[in-house]
Structure formats: structure tokens, C-alpha cells
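Provenance

Sequences were taken from public entries as deposited. Structures were produced by running a predictor on each sequence independently, with no templates supplied. The record for Ribonuclease P protein subunit p29 from Prunella himalayana is shown for reference.
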Amino acid sequence: LWPQGSRKAETFVHAFLKRSMPRMKDEAIQDMLARKAVVLEHYHKKKTKQKRSKTKGFTAKERRELRLFEIEPEQQRQGFRCLLCVVRYALFLPLHELWKQYIRDLCHGLKPDAQPHMIQGKLLKADLHGAIVTVTKSKCPSYVGITGIILQEFKHVFKIITKEDKLKVVPKLNNVFSLELDGFISYIYGSKFLLRASERSAKKFKLKGTIDL
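Predicted structure for Ribonuclease P protein subunit p29:
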């Protein structure tokens, strides 16, 4: 350590700062020394970013020429047969049993002295996937009598698998459905039921004196 007033110490510090901060002028270095506070700066070298080469895919014209998304008729028939093999009524009976237990828990047991309007209010907001429904009334006679398990519920239709292992798409509009559980029979007027399952859970239904198809 050099004494504070030493000329050599001042020369050393000045040279050291000059080497450490080559971009600064002598006047600025002298100003920093006069303030007795020195901050050594470090200059980072800017890294040049390497551009990534994008993999070029096929154009729409090339995909059409290569027939990438075309399925041969024989493969279509095989795929359709495989789909029919998967959709079986018996496969969804466990789902129906789960749905019945879900409704019993939702309605606190479905006891004989339970109020029908209370059960009806619960069913209006319940998830119907797994329920067995029957079309009792319809403006289209071909729909009357269709019975099966609801596989999917959309805003306007039910997808139902029947005991004959047939997948039916039944519109809600102009149809009346019935479902039975532990002696309670409820009717769903599809024209007033044009909602998704997620929307029904938050909707407030109003009682109406008369309901038409």
C-alpha cells in the first residue's frame, strides 16, 4: 500500500483506470478520482444470434399430389367396421350404474317420500351422460320408442346407443324424453332443453304451466 499523498500511487491509479476504462477521457477519470468513488465498468461483447433455419414442409399443392391425407376405400370400410365393433351397448352399462349412483347422491337417496319437484330440479342441472332415456313423444314418428344410454350431449342433440348396438343421433327439438330411476319417472322437453351440460348447471329454470313440443 502506498501512502495517500504519494505521487506514485496517483500515477498507478490513473494508469489502472485508463486501462480498465479505455473509452473514458482523462477529464472524466480525473473527475471520478476527485469524487473518491470509483466504479469499474465491464463491457460485454455482443453475441451475434444465429438464425435458425426453418424446416420447409410440403405445400398444399405437393400434399395433394402426394395424396397424403387420402384414405383408400378399403381402409375406410375396415375402419368403419372397427368403429362398429367398439360401440357396444354392454360396454356402457357400467357407466349407467355410475350415473344412477351419482343421481342418488345428488338427490340424497331418492327416498319414496322425496318431493318430485326437488328431484326434477336436480335432474335439470345434472349431467346426463350414462342415463337411459326413451323418446316418448315426437313430431317425427320415427323417433318415438328409441331407448338407450346417452353417450354424448350437445346443445341440440343427444347421441344414444341402443340395445341393438346402434348409435342414434336424436335432436332435442320437438322431442320429449323420459328417464326412470328407482321408481321416479322424469320427462325432458327437448325444445326447452337446448343447452349444453355446462350451461344447464348454472341456469335457473322457471316452472311453466303448459309446455308444448
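The first helix runs from residue 7 to 20.
The mean pLDDT is 78.
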